[in-house]
Each structure stands twice: as C-alpha cells, then as structure tokens.
Amino acid sequence: MSAECLRLPLYPQLWDSTRRTLLESRQFTVHAWTYPSGVKALSLENSRGKLVILPWQGQMIWSAEFDGHDLTMRNMFSQPRPSDTIIGTYGCFMFHSGLLRNGCPGPEDTHALHGEMPCAPMDEAWLESGEDEHGAYLRLGGTCEYVQGFGDHYRASPSVTLRPASGVFEIGMEVVNLAGKAMDLMYMAHMNYAYVEGARLSQPLGCERTRVRASVPAHVRPTPAWSDYMAQLSQDPQALEVLDSPALYDPEIVCFFDEVRSDAEGQAHFFLEHPDGAAFYTHYSPQQFEHAARWILHNADQQVAAFVLPATCEPEGYRAERAKGNVRSLAPGARAEFSVRTGFLSATERRALPT
Description:
This protein has helices spanning 224-235, 318-324, 347-351, and strands spanning 6-10, 20-24, 29-34, 40-46, 49-53, 61-66, 69-70, 94-97, 124-132, 135-147, 153-162, 168-177, 183-185, 188-191, 200-202, 207-212, 253-260, 268-273, 279-284, 291-298, 303-311, 328-330, 335-345.
C-alpha cells in the first residue's frame, strides 16, 4: 500500500438495499448496505475480522468481531434503529457519549441519556487508506457540526482506524469549539464489551483507588440481594475481580477509578482476561481522560462487561459532575483530542503484554 493517503468521500446516495463493495485491497475490504430499518452501515474488514459502523448516525460502531469472537454486548436489538437518542438503539459496541452533556441525567437535569452525540446526524463521511508511523491503515472519518441559535456551536470529528491482521483498532474524537464563548465539554468513549463468563478483570498498573457508585440512577431498581452486594463491594471493590456471579449483576454494577496509573509512554492498560487465555483490551492516556468507569450488567435482555470507559468526567449527569468540578471548559476556537486503542487479543498476543 502506498504511503500516500488516499481519501474516498462518501455520500448517502451510495447506499440502497444492495450490499456492495466500496473498497478492496490485499489487506482490507469495505462493504456498504442498508438495514431494513433504514439505517446505513458499512464494514471495515481485515483478515481477522470486522467492524460494522454507522457512518451517518454518530459514527457509532454497531458491532465488532475478531477471530470468531463477538466483542459486542448482548442486547435486544436485531439491527440498529433510527433514533435521536442512544436509548432508542442501545445495542451497539461503541458510541461517543457527550459532548455537551454526558451520563445518566439526574433529577434536575434536562439532557438525554449520554447526551447529543451518540446518534448525531453526520454532515460528512469518508474513507482513508495509507501508511503512517504504525504501518498501513484503513480509516473511517467524518464531521458533525452542532449549532444552536443563541447556544453552543462546535464541530465533532470521530474516526475509527483498522490495521492489517490485527484485532486491535483505534477510536478517535476531535472537538473544536466554533462559538465565540466557552463551551462545556463532557466526553466518554462508551465501549460496550460482551460479558464473558469466568473472565478476570485486570489492570496491571493499577490506580490510586476504586470506588463503587453510591448514587442510584432512575433506571435502576435495587433488590435486597443487590443492595447487600453493593454494600460489600463498597467496602472491598477488589472483590469484583472475576465475572462469576451473574445473578448479582442485575441491576448494574458501576465503579469509578481514581488516578489511573500509566506506563513510560503515558498509557493505561485494562484487560478482560478470558478463561482460554485470550483477552479484550483497552489502553488510553489518562492525560486525555482524567476519569474512568466500569459497567457490568447481566440479565435476560442485556449482558455487558464494559471493563473500562475512559472519560473526562463521571457518568452521573451534568449537574452532579459540574458540582464535582468535572465539567471541562473549551475556550472559543480551542480543540480537544481523544484517542483509544481497543479490541481483541489472542492468547499469544496477550502473553506478550504486561501481566
């Protein structure tokens, strides 16, 4: 593949009910199709698997599969649905949570669950292929301009980058404040990984402290057994190390990590270790994401092990996070950039990384 970057603009008119090939090379393939629901999708594929992405709906990653392993949470949706908010299509592998508001709205909040970005209509989308310092790549990018009269005005530019013969990929987000006044910024890379029975939650470098969420969001209906378990976890958060008690993960378990430690390159590492030696993996820079959370849920309809959710704030809604001092302010004309590497490691690949 040439070192020169090749860019292919995408247009909604390319999509109809026919599945078609948009790009094909020795290392990558891209297919496009429209679901019966009307949602347009494309797949970024390499020799080990694929990502299904919704290029015009928040550029959320609908599903991810590598080496025959489904990385996506079990959910109630057989296909993505047209929706203005994430709750109307909550079955995806990853969505961009934020950007003006984030998390579960509290009693005095007026924002939607996880804000305005997850299902935002994209203004532009394109494919790129080329080489950089890490080698060959295939990337989906796009832009969305958010503007409200007498309100906020920003440009969001998400991206997903796939590498040859790798189950690990890169998720990016750039936000530029186009308004003449400062804007609030709350962002979370919300990766909804599959629940794996018997998997171990590991974080080789650790953190200063792990806390169990004390508040109870409106959508959570506590049971006596769950309340007892939460009280135990509050005293010893490290007790949640192996996913071996699914009955206790309904309602959900949410934990927060304080002062996550990083390696010499400034990267924090989190794993969901499978019993067979493979692993789900995420690493990111705590300088970009000052906060991180964990979300575990297991019931008949939804099963998820979001082992780390890097964020600029905790997911407790705007007013709560503002009171904590967790809402960033982005100056006029300023930009913020975020990057996460995540995906699937074979047992051999996992053994090559720190334990």
